[in-house]
């Protein structure tokens, strides 16, 4: 158990819908990272927050947004969902801003039908 | 974005055999990391390498940071069934990426026959 909690574990939704994925980082960790894992693209960095502020952005679509709340948990919002958005979404957390010693959650498997 | 070329894509080996996998990049990285992912789980960090030429071991695992900073390899000695999983290399920093994110390889699927 990495100490990073993601909910829900599985999500099935229809195209055009909007979903919210939630991540609780390890106790004491200030950084949260979101990654998307798909069969063809592998693990792709989406976005990072550090202590409530956006720190870095990767290949995140405009239909996707994220935020980190004062209690440091984070949410990833995916809207106008398309079939191609089906993937595993991972959250990772670390104490500092650098990724190296980050720990991954178990992921949320999103299926868009 | 920057891609890491990880090979082989998959390996089928017998228990007790040694395993070797590697990653190459056209750009340099400041840090190389190796992760293992098992079904239903997130990636777990196995080894982190911070200096060109560095050779680091973690039990039966050994990894090296290439001297050119553009490659890394991971060796697993005397494999056991619980070594099954997908192994990912990842690079951070340098001209290949940023300090805030990792660039991952596509993974090596390892199957160990008892």
Beta-strand fraction estimate of chain A: over 45%
Principal-axis shape of chain A equals: globular
> Helicity of chain A, in percent?
under 10%
**Gyration radius over CA of chain A:** 13 Å
**Subunit organisation of the chains:** heterodimer
Q: Tell me the series of helices and strands of chain A, N- to C-terminal.
A: EEEEEEEEEEE
Structural class of chain B: mainly beta
**Alpha-beta classification of chain A:** mainly beta
The total count of strands of chain A amounts to 11
How many angstroms separate the termini of chain B? 39 Å
- End-to-end separation of chain A: 31 Å
Rg over alpha carbons of chain B: 13 Å
Strand content of chain B is: over 45%
Short description:
Chain A contains no helices and 11 strands.
Walkthrough of the structure:
The complex is a heterodimer of chains A (113) and B (114). Chain A has no helices and 11 strands. Chain A has 113 residues and is mainly β. In chain A, strands 2, 4, 5, 6, 9, 10 and 11 form a 7-stranded mixed sheet that branches. Chain A has a 4-stranded antiparallel sheet with strand order 1-3-8-7, with no helix packed on it. The mean pLDDT of chain A is 94. By secondary structure, chain B is mostly beta strands. Chain B is built from no helices and 11 strands. Chain B has strands at residues 5-7, 10-14, 19-24, 31-37, 44-49, 55-58, 61-65, 71-76, 85-92, 103-104, 108-113. The A-B interface holds A 2, 4, 33, 42-45, 48, 55-56, 58-59, 90, 92, 97-107 and B 1, 31, 33, 40-45, 48, 88, 90, 92, 98-107.
